[in-house]
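How a chain folds remains the central question behind the approach discussed here. In the encoding step, the backbone of a single protein was reduced to a row of integers, each denoting a local shape. We regard such an encoding as a compact summary of how the chain folds. The sequence in question and its structure tokens are set out directly beneath this paragraph:

___
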Amino acid sequence: MSGRLRIDVFFDFICPWCLIGKRQLEQAQELLRARQPDVAFTTVWHGVQLLPHLPAQGEPFAEFYRKRLGNADAVQMRQAQVQQAAQAVGETIDFSRIATMPNTADAHRLLERVSVLGNSRQRDALLERLFAAYFHYGEDLGNRETLIAIAQSCGFEAGFVADCLYGNGEPFVGNPGATGGVPCFQFDRRVTVVGAHPAEKLFGVMYEALLERTGELQPS
């Protein structure tokens, strides 16, 4: 079987399940490549700002989650659950380094700028660097200077991105296709899977989408 599969991914940088889901998707793609090496993927990333009403400077991370979950014990349990899920896909999340729950509007605008004016390799490098900045190093993705430095580390001149970083907390208006939550995966714009799921499940959905597209499997 040969062909091309379009995958639309809806995500936010502050959602750990989006990073976990990214790793699960990558593993699913490897499973499909092993079975169908002639299949090519087109992956399109759509930013979804989960907390558009956060102030431009963000909020203290620990305080944000204590208010959200009720108490420190609940926060610790939730973070342990997330870290365990991350480890299962070979990922590390260091909550101890995160000081700020950031406003991600400018981070999404930065990725959008690179996605439109750069190439897929540059976009993928920036996407990885932004996830690592938050979940590995605790960098503030709402800080304009931080975002410019991240862009420069991926080979972009400051002037290439500076005008898309507003720094005022203006919400990011992205694609509304992920109304059911993030991460959200759409395959061939027909089949939607919401949430971080095992690679085997995503592989199965992708494989069936390819079969339907090539006419080898008729939808029931």
